[in-house]
Amino acid sequence: MTERMNDRVAIITGGASGIGRACALRFAEEGAAVMVADVNGDRAEAVAAEVIAAGGRAETVVVDTSSEEACDAMVAATVAAFGKVDACVAAAGISHAGYVSREVEEQAGADRLDRHDMLVLDKALASWQRVIDVNLTGVMLTNRAVARAMVESRTPGSIVNIASVAAVTALKGSADYCVSKAGVWMLTKCLAGELARYQIRVNAVGPGYIKTSMSGAAVVHESWVREREAETPMRRLGEPVDIANACLYLASDEASFVTGEIIFPDGGLGAATRA
């Protein structure tokens, strides 16, 4: 099989779990050297170990993508380790301000589903701002740091941002999340226009309901799963690899003339609203 990312270097933020982990593994499988970037260093190391055990190349870096300095350091570490940056998947994100990890979410159980700060009327400003800082500003800072390195080295490249069906669909109780993901989609289009002259492509992927750490507590509730499956025309939740495959396409030469676009791997969830 042709290795679509052979001799390329990819940064995967949020690479320690869920969609980010799936991207790190798939990109490495297709020949990329991957920088697994995550706020959780131990879990990032575990993913890198998976890549290496499978015969790939991987390094790790601890990063809080809401920090400009941390994003710049992440890219510098990647260039130091591998010599360049060809691609990036900006997958780091949170579903709500209190999100930590799948393990913590599952322990919280129903508390996660019955939070008292879900509606805008009840939401603390700090909670709203945290989601925007990570999901939107963090993506901008990641994109900017990566693009600056590509421009400086004159390396054509591809940036893929993880948005959501929530970028185009209002979800009650998730205004901060929806607004942040809508911002990611608009940011993607703006950067695609700005960076095209450098041969840097910028696209987005908008997952539907996926079995990831961000839905960790929810997926242990059978009623929640049944409701989400009923909403989805394909009658199942997506797997992280479904999203990783979409990201891989956009990062590869197969999408060499694609920029400023968004793909929705959502099992048909948003088909009616986007028609």
Report what the structure shows:
The structure is a single chain. By secondary structure, the protein is of the alpha/beta class. The protein has a single domain, classed as NAD(P)-binding Rossmann-like Domain (Rossmann fold), CATH 3.40.50.720. It is built from 11 helices and 7 strands. It has a 7-stranded parallel β-sheet with strand order 3-2-1-4-5-6-7, sandwiched between helices. Strand 2 (33-38), helix 2 and strand 3 (57-62) form a beta-alpha-beta unit. The protein is globular.
Give a brief description.
The protein has helices spanning 18-29, 41-53, 68-82, 102-108, 110-113, 125-153, 175-195, 216-219, 222-231, 240-251, 271-274, and strands spanning 9-13, 33-38, 57-62, 87-90, 157-162, 200-205, 262-263. The protein is of the alpha/beta class. It has a single domain, classed as 3-Layer(aba) Sandwich (Rossmann fold), CATH 3.40.50.720.
